Amino acid sequence: MEKILKVENIEKYYGGRSSLTKAIDNLSLEVEKGEFVAIMGSSGSGKTTLLNVISTIDCVTSGHIYVGGIDITKLKGNDLNKFRREELGFIFQDFNLLDTLTAYENIALALSIQNISAKEIDVRIKKVAEELDIKSVLSKYPYQMSGGQKQRVASARAIITNPKLVLADEPTGALDSKSAKMLLEKFNYLDELGATILMVTHDAFTASYARRVVFIKDGKIFKEIHKGNDSIKEFFDKIIDVVTLLGGDLNDAL
Length: 254
Prior knowledge:
- By secondary structure, the protein is of the alpha/beta class.
- Helix content is 36%, strand content 25%.
- It has one domain (3-93, 166-252): Rossmann fold, CATH 3.40.50.
- The chain is built from eight helices and ten strands.
């Protein structure tokens, strides 16, 4: 299988000499094309820092990160902007939709920047809208949509450019349980498209929809488990078992 993401012996320090904090400690990780991987860990474990350095929001102190074979730790300026625009998709907890644009326009924006023709944009949007069940809201503005609809629009925006890697930061955090379940079921469609998803979450139910869960503790990988042929309920129970081993508060994982 093609490796979309390769994180190689990365370290990340914050602060000065008198108060140095190691957020990531010699961590390595690989994600194959089409995988849906969840990252879990308690507050301060390093999971958000890991997502930030992979997303190029932050820089590693040492080590290398490869996305689609490109060493992103060496990219700068226009090359970095181009990579972020064309190769990464983002799904945020608070949706980050533009209030002055309709759902259709929010999704189309990334394609417009790439000078894709209006006809091609229309074809792509209608296809993804059908699969994510958002056809009825394409002409609506964010304030006219439910939280679940806004997050599915944000998901459509994230994958419409066919990025190599989709990064999701607590994507169900602002949703009620029904909307969260619907969104996670739609993530299966992203899998079918061949999308590679790396998701940070504190929620065991959300993580149970992934194919693999990687647990981070003190900036290192503590353990990882694979879903295999498990049901969502069976995988959820295994996730809770690891959370217990981590010594985390189960209330934070539910």
